[in-house]
Task: structure prediction
Amino acid sequence: MAARTRKSRRARRGKVADAPPVAAPFWRKPAGWLTGVAGLVVSALVAFLIPQLAPGWLDSAKDAAGSPVLAVTVEDDPSNLVGNTWSAPRDSGRPPVDPQGQWTVYPPDWYRAQGALRAGASGHRIVVENRRSVPVELLDLRPVVVERRPPLSGALYWMPPQGEVADVRLRIDLDVTSPVVQELNETTPYFASRHQQLAKGERVVFRVVAESARCHCRWRLAAEYQDSDGPHTLTIPAEDAPPLETTAYASSYEAVYDGLRPGYPAVDPAKFCRGPESPCTH
Result:
C-alpha cells in the first residue's frame, strides 16, 4: 500500500513538471509591447485617414462612372416676363376660347404645340447644384449663341405687358457678339466681380431673362467652374440636346391675333405693325 502511494505521488510530480509555463503579460515583453503600440497607431491612423480620403475616393468613383461635378438645369420661368405674347412659325389660327369667348391668357402648351416661342424675350430659371463632397467654385455662366435665324413671323398672338415684375433678376442680351449674364440696368458682367462658392450638395438658383431684338436665337450656357482638379466647363443643354431658343419680334407677320379683344380675334397684320403701340421691328 505504501509503495503504491509513493508511485502515485511521483506520477503527480511528473505531470506538474510537464505542464507548459504560464506566458508573461505582453507589457513585460519588449516585443509584445511594441506590437501593441504599433497596432494602436495603425488603428488611429486608419480612423483618421478614412474620413479624409473617402470623399476623394467617392469623387473618383463618380468621375469613373461619368457623373458630372455640377448638375445644371434650365427651366422655363415665365414669371420673369411682363406680358404673354407669343410668335409662331406659321399661322395656326385663333387659339381655342371658352364658350363665352372670355379667355385672354392661354395655357403655354397650346402655343408650344404650334412651335411658338414667347416674343421678344424668354424667362429661365437656372439651378446649379454641387454633386461632389468637396467645395466647387462657379466662375461663370456664359451664353453661347449657336445660331441666329430671322425672327419667327408666321403668327403673332398679342398680349402686351400688364405690369412690372418686381423681383430682381439677371438678363442676357443675345444680340451682342459675346453675350454675358448681367444684372438689370447694369453693363458689367455679373460674374466679373463675384464667384459662387458651392459646398457639398449646395444649390443656387439664378432667374434670367434672355432678350433679342434681331433674331430667332438658338443658344446654350457654358458653366465654368473650378474644383480641386482645376477649371472645367459644362455645356447646358448638352451638345446632343436641343438648344435654348429666344425670338425677337418680326417686322411683319402673316397673321396677328389680338388678345386684348374678346375671343382673341384676327386683325389686319399690316395695320397692326404700323400702329404706334406695335412691337414689330422696323
